[in-house]
Protein 1
Amino acid sequence: MSSPGIERVLRKEEHFIQNIGKKIEIKLFKKDESGRKQIIGILKKIDEENISVEVEDNILEINRRNISQVKTVYEW
């Protein structure tokens, strides 16, 4: 069995809560209105429907149904 590594996939509500204020990578099922399929930013808050992420001084609200994967980002 191998280690899950430094960058971890966030699945459970508690994983998201533990990572508020940290950098995450969000992969979307399809491109958003600005043409992105991947978003990297600071996790600000989470609720039943949305994830709020700060990207370049803007707060994005992303519907959780549009997200295929979220993982932490480790900066070297």
Note: The chain has one domain: 13-72.
Protein 2
Amino acid sequence: MSDRIRRVNESIRQVLSQAVPELKDPRIGFVTVTGVVTTADLRQATVFVSVLGSEQARESTLQGLAAAHGVLQAGLGRQLKLKRTPQLTFEYDPSVEYGVRMTKLIDDLAPAPNDDEPAADH
């Protein structure tokens, strides 16, 4: 991936991170833009999002974001001085949910500290 594409991806992520919470669509829940992957020709950008809530909330949010892609794309065009504004598609990013689940599993497996035993000096 070239440095230019990397900078474009990060710029798009920043702009969308600010724009998404301002959308007034009631289907859109609490969303975090976790990453963007843009094609080399800048014609398409896949936006990865994490959604807080149930499977139904996730699906509803993705539908709302898909419906709002034109507004978001226009905002990108105004804020980023690109020759061509990429067509946006939104995909769910399960990495945040996976990380939370792994942390919970580790916490469940870790022994609880015992107040009766002195701390071991290592």
Note: Residues 41 and 60 are 30 Å apart (CA to CA).
